[in-house]
Design brief:
The protein folds into two domains: 8-136, no CATH class; 137-172, no CATH class. The protein is α+β, with helices and mostly antiparallel strands. The termini are far apart. It has a five-stranded mixed beta sheet. A two-stranded antiparallel sheet has the order 1-7. It has three helices and seven strands; from the N terminus they run βββββαββαα. The structure holds zinc ion (2 copies).
């Protein structure tokens, strides 16, 4: 296994065949400093070089602190993502781009820069509505109590939940 300290590679230094890298991505460099990571953003990268063509396989793994979208409590979110991307040299891109499925095709010039790809993979893997647990009960809409921790008195005092109200409407 080779070591590389960044996500920017020099294609001229890649040997024919496959090279494997394990990298701890620089969060600032990826412009992800707004997130609170519990462990480093680890990338395992395999670059398979065949002539000018470089097939990259990327695996990301990390864990970060987010707020539950229902109860607002701080929670740990594990992130895992994989992607396959084919790189061709920029000068050849016209003919080759037509032959390939354009969605997973990228181009390299003097450098092969994986930073944008890793950043996008990370952002796409983030849950839109993170949950501290599948059955998080959230906050009481009337009093704001965290219903995972306490049962507030709102329901008992005759303040039916939205679901209850809807059910009654349907029944009538
Ligand atoms: Zn929650
Ligand atoms: Zn309540």
């Amino acid at each position: 296994m080779s070591r590389n300290d960044s996500l920017v590679f020099l294609p001229t230094q890649l040997v024919e065949g496959s090279s494997r890298f394990e990298i701890e991505a620089d969060i600032d460099e990826l412009d992800l400093a707004e997130y609170t990571f519990s462990v480093p953003l680890r990338c395992e990268i395999v670059l398979e070089r065949t002539g000018d063509r470089i097939d990259a396989h990327l695996d990301l793994e990390t864990s970060l602190k987010l707020s539950c979208s229902r109860c607002g409590e701080s929670m740990r979110q594990d992130i895992c993502a994989s992607a396959d991307v084919t790189f061709l040299p920029e000068v050849k891109n016209k003919e080759d781009a037509d032959e390939q499925d354009a969605t997973d095709l990228e181009f390299y010039s003097e450098v092969l820069d994986l930073r944008d790809i890793v950043r996008d993979m990370f952002l796409l893997a983030l849950p839109i509505a993170p949950l501290c647990s599948e059955d998080c009960r959230g906050l009481c809409p009337s009093c704001g109590a965290n219903l995972n921790r306490e049962n507030c008195k709102c329901n008992i005092q005759g303040n039916p939940s939205t679901f209850e109200k809807l059910r009654r409407l349907v029944d009538e």
